[in-house]
Amino acid sequence: MRVTDVEVIPIAHTLPEGEGLGDARGFGRSRSTSLLRVETADGQVGWGEAFAPGSVVAPVVDEFFRDAVVGMDPLDAEGLAAESYTDPYHFGASAFVQSALSGIDVALWDLRGKEAGEPAYRLLGGGRRETLTAYASTMYFTEGEDDAAEQVRAAVDEGFDAVKIKIGSGTDEDVRRARIARETLGDDGRLMVDINGNYRPRQAIETIKALEEFDVAWVEEPVPPENYSGYREVKSRTDVPIAAGEAHYGRFAFKRLIDDRTVDVVQPNLGRCGGLSEARRIADMATTENVAVRPHVWNSAVGLAAAVQFAASVDDYPHVRHVPEPMLVEFDRSDNPLREEILASPIDPSGGEVTVPTDPGIGVEVDEEAVERYRADG
Question: Region (Disordered): which ranges (predicted)?
Answer without folding.
Answer: 343-365
